Fold each of these.
Amino acid sequence: MKRIILCLGILACSISVVNARDIGQWGAVDPEIREWYQALMQPDVPNASCCGEADAYWADEIHVKDGKTYATITDDRPDEPRGRPHVALGTEIEIPNNKLKWDRSNPTGHGIVFLSRGGYVFCYVQPGGV
């Protein structure tokens, strides 16, 4: 069952990446940032992408509650140019421990959570570490 869910998650991510490239939001992004997004891999599935900007939400507030990690959505950028569904400011997202990504610097200056359209967490990248 886990393998099926993982495959579906990878498939959804692949589809999202294609959509992200097709709608043109990469044109206005610094090439260094674009390359960073495209090179991110899931910490628990190192050959699977964290996805792209169409799946990325700023989540600068992170905290631990009852032994679980949560990131709070702080992204007030418009969703339409990014081709992503809306997630309201202040929404708390539980980040599974195996999705915490600590092995890459982050040139965006923001914590970023990568979500599928169904709310599955692909990755969480800590803020800072430029």
Amino acid sequence: MSARALLMWDDGVTGYNFGPSHPMDPVRLALTMGLVRAYGLDEVAEVVSAPAAGDSTLRLVHQQAYVDAVRRFSAHPGDADGSYGIGTPDDPAFAGMHEASALIAGQSVGAAEAVWRGDAAHAVNFAGGLHHAMPGSASGFCIYNDASLAVARMLELGAERVAYIDVDVHHGDGVQETFWDDPRVLTISMHEHPHTLFPGTGWAEETGGEGAEGSAVNIALPAGTGDEGWLRAFHAVVPELLAEFRPQALVTQHGADTHFEDPLAHIAVSVDAQRAVQAACHDLAHEYVEDGRWVALGGGGYAVVDVVPRSWTHLVAIAAHAPIDPESVVPVAWRDEVYALTRQLGPGRMTDGRTPQWRAWDAGYDPADRLDQLILATRKAVFPLRGLLP
């Protein structure tokens, strides 16, 4: 197993562009890559590009009729009428949609292949993490589900146990749906409660299909959850499950839309807490995953200047075993780049000034606390199915 880290990047991923009024602005990808370069991480992680996913790869997850529809609407965006989920306000058709989506998917599949084969210990595709796309339809700003494709490719290559952890503010519903009946895949999603946020799924009681009971895990958090509660929930559920499952590979999704500045959701965590979970995923990969295999993806994130670039640059640095001091001053050259591209002032430091701490689950449970109630609901729903005490 190689100790090197890969950063999957192709300038073409910025072609994933729903238009100027859509919240998923591809400038977030360009700015992230700019910050990665400003910190010299492109000299620590090996920057590589994989080819776009072809139809045979896309069919590992998606129906051919859907792929054909994406290709058709990509060539003729004006024909999109909402069928297959394309042509909606969330997922408007755009020229080159198939090509850009397949390119992003290809980077995640390439990362999965490299990590599984031992060419790298870790690989990052922050352009990926498009976790809402379903086998037969687009959903939630997502055309092709590169996260599911990365997992599916590892299974095709012979993996028998793959864990997927999703800390985006939205439920990772597309990945859960893809592997609902597959006991080889453990999906864990920590997200804002479905009562208050799209897609309205991800209840603790959703635990997997027949023959795969306990393979789906959902940690629903109350709106307003901050650093301490977010980290408490993660550490109260994830490590024990990974210790029991002992995956041969780990895929994680790090949507930055849990941040308190994000305009589309109601969880209130800092870049510092996001960094803490990224570091925890890295440590869990080395502790519980065979050969430390880890593929890390991006996801949502709509505070495209202040939050996304810092969060995902920390992710790249952690995967490359070259963590950035949160107190470090953001390079002036990058801030100039931010202003040139967006006419906004970029953040000055890689921290929000927080030092995240949390109370461990074994330190006690408060029956009157809503967060603790929801954590316990997840543990009660899933842990006994996996032979663990709730």
Amino acid sequence: MIRKIIHIDMDAFYASVEQRDNPELRGKPIAVGGSERGVVAAASYEARKFGVRSAMPSKTALRKCPQLIFVKPHFENYRAVSYQIREIFLEYTPLVEPLSLDEAYLDVTENLKGMSSATEIAREIKARIKEKTQLNASAGVSYNKFLAKLASDYKKPDGLFVIKPNQGEAFVESLPVNLFHGVGRVTAEKMNKMGIFNGADLKEKDEAFLKKHFGKIGGYYYNIARAIDNRIVNPERSRKSVGSENTFFRDLETRAELESGLEPIIRDVWKYCAKTHIYGRTITLKVKFLDFHTITRSKSALSPIMDKDFFERISFELLEQIYPLPKGVRLLGISLSNLESTDDMIGKQLTLAF
């Protein structure tokens, strides 16, 4: 059976939510993130015209766009909107695989509305998202996940693009390898040095060659060069960690400053856990010093940590391990991993022992 896969990707999601909620920001170049010492978490399309991109250092973004407006992130708002969008997806199919707050795969081969056209489903979902959230989404439709992802990127923003079964191989052959999902910048540069610039070049290499030069993932490259992707849409895919971090306007140098800086980060992580009923066994503290040297300190419990005071105490105990400070601290972060939902804990005996 030829599958019908849709990839939905929200357009400039964080920035678009901020512009929706603050009319004064609409039509202006904005970046979600720290204005002085942080990085850009998301950029509006007005900012992208100047070359501003996510993960770019804030100072670089300001050089590219001096009129750039920085906005503090509001992750609780982004999560709330993401849940609204997820509810729309589930009206069409239970086979929804979230990749992040702003994108997901849907398998609509058999769907809850009995619609025969995946393209019409994608168009309807886009309209429903716009109606419910006032935000634009781009959709890609194809017969596997790899092509659906490529298709959603192809006509952004507010796009809808379809790659039919008889078009897949030709589409991949013409595409530069740096646009392939799963081929990062470093890998693309390595491929270019080997004379591999597009899908057609990649298709010329046999599987043994690709595995020799790229390891196990070489098999994946061999398949996608032929538009082959047999991965299923997995609704059981779970996130591996939850966390929060903050880059400070100035370096923190005292115990009081560090503890004060860590408190809201702890609260943010716990707020997510309490709302989603997802808890973790491993707490990790991340510390980035003024020279960008980064260290982590972790501690694990035998079962998920469901007590807020205990979570807070262990977080501060991890902070104690970095004293005496070798230098000022520019960033602190806390994350929880080895996650479990409370729904999966029924009947289990919980313990806080380490």
Amino acid sequence: MSDRRGRRGGDGGDRAPDFDNPDEDDPDMGDLFDELAELEDTVDSEDEREQVRETMRVAREAQETPVFGRVVFGFDRSDAAEALLGSLLFGIPMFVEGGTHEVGLFIADRPLYFLATNVLTLVLAAGILYVADFQDVRVYNPIFGIIPRKFVGVLTIPLVTALVVMTVWGRVDWAEPWLAVCQVSVALVPMSIGAALGDLLPG
């Protein structure tokens, strides 16, 4: 009782919620997922945890919000397909133009620039997923308990795509492996952006 009274007005009387006050926080799907995540941590058996996860899955599918502002987590086959499409849309121009080769040659002689290029890729992907707030992205069941699956997915798919397509199309020569790696790294910058956006924008 004391906790409930503490949420009322200072005179102890009931106060009706102000539905017209835009500053008053209303619970949303994000709050629901927070509560379910806390529940998953407190249950004792694996069957109960599986029930909580199933509830989270159903809640995610039942969202009736627009494309933006949804709660997303995990990385499944549909996410992988969307990331592949996005990485190809951003990557094909990089494959067919000579600029990728030229920039690869440039950073091949400058290891610090090669490192900066890869750091940029990581920062851009993480920024789109977790900072730009396109969607409410939640880290769920991370790899080894710390690595977000979605982050790994939107980096791995464009990386593999770049390796395969650039090799098949003769855009890299693995007789010079260091140069080939640098050229793939250059292509990976926009491809990781495309993969992250492709994963998030369809919701």
